[in-house]
TrEMBL record:
Record carries keyword Transit peptide: no
List of residues binding FAD: 622
PANTHER family noted in UniProt: CHOLINE DEHYDROGENASE, MITOCHONDRIAL, GLUCOSE-METHANOL-CHOLINE GMC OXIDOREDUCTASE
InterPro entries: FAD/NAD-bd_sf, GMC_OxRdtase, GMC_OxRdtase_N, GMC_OxRtase_C
Organism: Euphydryas editha
Domain Glucose-methanol-choline oxidoreductase N-terminal positions: 164-187
Keywords: FAD, Flavoprotein, Membrane, Transmembrane, Transmembrane helix
Gene Ontology molecular function terms on file: flavin adenine dinucleotide binding; oxidoreductase activity, acting on CH-OH group of donors
Pfam hit, one: GMC_oxred_C
Name of this chain's protein: Glucose-methanol-choline oxidoreductase N-terminal domain-containing protein
Family: Belongs to the GMC oxidoreductase family.
Cofactor(s), by name: FAD
Length: 655
């Protein structure tokens, strides 16, 4: 009965519940003592009741677990033993690996899927909780090597580098944005690799829930019956949703209802990997298919430490580390597939003797195939810009914020609705070519063919007033600023909410690299992202920031007294001087965690994703992309996994 009562509140905004509490903090003068006592008591009752109700419905958590009906419900998953033999071994249960393993299992093959992490936790199912997952146990959270040209205001001048470490990989911890990029992004000047070749694999897995919410012209670009659900995020009730769209439209940005159809250009409310108010990952799609659960074996919390390659350069299996110094050797009849991501796959290849000859010899690793593994890594990069908004009231008390969040979580637990079922403002995005923006007239133009090729993507987030001081560790995990910058931003956030704008460089010119730091496979590799080594990337960032300045200068933003926070940086010119934004970009650099290219098509793998010089070894993940797509990479990497499964099935004559 209790659940049915709460379910009927699905259409009620929890803002109505907390608006009376807001009044305690809305007046500029300090409240009278009597009012302060009443506000405190109201806060206390509000919080206690919320916690009590949350505990009462705690049993709901059982419904939120990932299906554990498979035999491998233990910490390590399915039982494996030294010397076991499988038809295929897939390393990495992320975007591509889950797709490859599931398709092979559906084809009747005996497949082992190896994952260094474990099960995703409850928070991974809540869209709004994505911000809490960075630097958690589900994140590799790699350290990087500074280049003294980027991330200069981060701790140690190092850029944060996250990758998912659990079933579903990064699809379990990312921001769930579903964008495929531009058709031209998939022409790799290699036989069989054009948009025409890869498009069917996007369509194969896509299960679009609401085709009727898109224009009729979008039907040819989508599928409604695939295994991976795609949908619009639910309404976050944030009024800045529409304001962001209207602000860009005033700069002549067209409203684009579908960035995955004919054109990317314009401002859009995009689709996401979401269904019914929950995150959709490759863990709760591919790996939870009934037939797959019966046939696929999964080794969790099991780290692959290398590929076993014999004297004839044939991959025979893998070595894995499991538990307290326990090492197993596992073998294959057919092939090993590496889907451990741009970082993990490159490291495993080099540990196994596949990589730059001179580098491998430094660590005493016998060279099996001299290839440029780890080279030419590229990643989407951005400067974070904070727009100060909603600063006409004092912030709510910590108790009120906690109580409000508790109610939002409770609403999500019962109804899968409310603010926690969205990713806030992040489903609003804009694609543009910055060279097709007229900075004098303050308007986007589209008068040349190249204007249809975006060079930048705007991504938004909302940060409530006072939230940094309430949860500094969450902020720091996502944006590890050094003390001076952190304090300035925190002080401003105590006065104003932020719209955080990420102006993403879609086709960066800078290239980084990855190398081994040790021959010990449990030691993380040495990663040099090398962001902003090419000045053209900084120039692109500055063009984007100037458009943000134009946007904040529109009447709509002026109506709400919005302004850009200009952080004072000791090594930069004054905030109103020439050169400030270029310097700012180098200090406030941030990665989108989209690294590709470390085992690229043509250089390391052939057109059927076979590692050159090694038989029975393939790679399927973001590392094979020679360059970045103009958009979020998860969609493309799942498509690569789907395509690799076809290659494997065809080449073994399993069709």
């Amino acid at each position: 009965m209790f659940r049915s009562i709460l379910t009927r509140t699905k259409s009620v905004s929890w803002r109505d519940v907390t608006k009376h509490l807001d009044r305690c903090y809305a007046d500029t003068p300090e409240p009278e003592p009597d009012l302060k006592r009443k506000c405190f008591l109201l806060n206390l009752v509000f919080f206690v009741v919320t916690v009590t109700v949350a505990l009462f419905v705690g049993g709901q958590l059982r419904d939120l677990r990932f299906d554990r009906s498979r035999s491998g419900s233990s910490y390590f998953g399915d039982k494996i033993s030294d010397g076991d033999v499988y038809d295929y071994i897939v390393v990495g249960a992320g975007a591509a690996g889950s797709a490859v393993a599931a398709r092979l299992a559906l084809a009747g093959r005996r497949v082992l899927l190896i994952e260094a992490g474990g099960d995703p936790n409850l928070l991974t199912k809540i869209p709004a909780a994505a911000v809490t997952l960075a630097a958690s146990s589900l994140d590799w959270y790699y350290d990087t090597i500074p280049n003294n040209k980027s991330c200069l205001s981060s701790q140690g001048k190092r850029c944060r580098f996250s990758r998912g470490r659990c079933l579903g990989g990064s699809t379990s911890i990312n921001y769930m944005m579903y964008t495929r990029g531009n058709r031209q992004d998939y022409d790799f000047n290699l036989t069989g690799w054009t948009w025409k070749d890869i498009e069917p694999y996007f369509l194969r897995y896509e299960g679009l829930s609401n085709l009727n919410r898109l224009p009729k012209s979008s039907a040819a670009y989508h599928n409604t019956s695939g295994v991976v659900s795609i949908d619009f995020f639910q309404d976050s009730s944030n009024p800045w949703h529409e304001r962001l769209i209207d602000g860009l439209k005033s700069l002549n940005f067209p409203y684009n209802p579908d960035v995955n159809a004919k054109s990317q250009i314009g401002v859009s409310r995009i689709l996401g990997f979401t269904r019914g108010g929950e995150r959709v990952s490759t863990a709760n799609t591919y790996l939870e298919m009934e037939i797959v659960k019966r046939k696929l074996r999964i080794a969790k919390n099991t780290q692959c430490t290398g590929v076993i390659i014999d004297e004839n350069n044939i991959a025979r299996g893998v070595t894995v580390h499991r538990g307290a110094n326990k090492t197993l050797r596992l073998y294959v009849k057919h092939e090993v597939v590496l889907s451990a991501g741009s970082i993990g796959t490159a490291q495993l290849l080099m540990l196994s003797g596949v990589g730059p000859k001179d580098h491998l010899e430094e660590f005493g690793i016998p060279v099996k195939s001299d290839l440029s593994v780890g080279d030419d890594m590229s990643d989407h990069v951005l400067p974070l810009v904070n727009i100060k908004v909603d600063h006409d009231h004092r912030p709510m008390s910590d108790l009120t914020i906690l109580g409000s969040k508790s109610l939002e979580i409770l609403q999500w637990l019962i109804t899968r609705s409310g603010p926690m079922s969205s990713n806030s403002l992040t489903d609003i995005t804009a694609f543009l070519n910055t060279k097709c923006y007229n900075y004098t007239l303050r308007r986007l133009v589209n008068n040349k063919p190249e204007c249809e090729l975006p060079t930048m993507q705007f991504i938004y987030a909302y940060m409530k007033k006072g939230v940094i001081s309430l949860a500094p560790s969450v902020y720091y995990s996502n944006i590890p600023h050094a003390k001076e910058s952190f304090q300035q931003i925190s002080d401003e956030n105590s006065k104003s909410a932020f719209i955080v704008v990420s102006s993403v460089v879609l086709q960066p010119k800078s290239r980084g690299w990855l190398r081994l730091a040790s021959s010990d496979p449990l030691t993380p590799p040495a990663i040099t992202p090398n962001y902003l080594a090419d000045e053209r990337d900084v120039e692109e960032m500055v063009r984007g920031i100037k458009i943000i300045e134009n946007m904040v200068d529109t009447p709509l933003y002026k109506k709400y007294n919005a302004s850009i926070q200009r952080t004072k940086i000791a090594d930069c010119p004054g905030v109103d001087e020439d050169g400030y934004w270029s310097c700012y970009a180098r200090h406030m650099t941030h990665s989108v965690q989209h690294a590709v290219g470390t085992a690229a098509l043509g250089r390391v793998v052939d057109e059927r994703l076979r590692v050159k010089g090694i038989k029975n070894l393939r790679v399927g993940d973001g590392s094979v992309l020679p360059h970045l797509p103009r958009g979020n990479t998860a969609a493309a990497i799942i498509a690569i996994g789907e395509r690799l499964s076809d290659f494997l099935i065809q080449d073994q004559g399993l069709e």
